[in-house]
Amino acid sequence: MDYTVDEEQFHLETLSSHIQYLAQLPLESEKMIEMMQVEKQKKSGSDDKVRFFKLLFEKCLSTAAAAAKRLGTHIRTAQKWTAKYERDPDCIFEKRRKTGRPCILNEEHKKAILECIDENPSIVLGNVMQHLRRAFTELKARFLPKV
Question: According to the lineage, what is the superkingdom (predicted)?
Fold first, then answer.
């Protein structure tokens, strides 16, 4: 049996070099732009709505999807805005009611706190709470100091 030395059994050729591979990768700035576009799609604000309806009405685009594509807004979001506008044109830009726990302190309480701090700028929170409890007996706010 004869052995052949220094002869390649498989013919290999280089498809691309490491430099060519790196050149094909997207730049960091492009990645950041893509990430910002994804974040933008998640949070649609009133400015986006204004631009959307301006495109829809002034540029006379035929569908909400066409305007959404131009703005980079999700198509379904634009369709919801259009449907809401068709139901009631005035309510589309109204802010939603705040959800969650209602505030314990009202404007009178806030004024009393500011007056207390104006009288004594170095007052601590515990003393402010005592002042509030004396001034407003119905107040049920608690202050738990850190130990």
Answer: Eukaryota
Q: Which one, of 112, 118, 120, lies nearest residue 139 by Cα?
A: 112
Write the CA distances from 143 to 14, 83, 124, 133, integer angstroms. 71, 47, 12, 11
User: So what's the pLDDT on residue 16?
Assistant: 77
Contact 109, 136 (CB under 8 A): yes
3: phi then psi, degrees, rounded to nearest 5: -105, 135
- Spatial distance between the Cα atoms of 74 and 72, rounded to a whole number of angstroms: 7
Q: How many residues does the chain have?
A: 147
> How far, in Å, CA of 118 to CA of 4, rounded?
97
Residue with tokens 């052995």: 3
Q: Map out the domains of the chain as residue ranges.
A: 28-87, 102-147
Q: Are the beta carbons of 132 and 141 closer than 8 angstroms?
A: yes
- φ/ψ (deg, to 5) at 82: -65, -45
- Report the alpha-carbon distance of residue 45 to residue 136 in Å, rounded: 40
Q: What is the pLDDT of residues 14-69, one digit of tens each?
A: 777 777 776 776 666 555 555 555 555 555 567 788 888 888 877 776 788 888 88
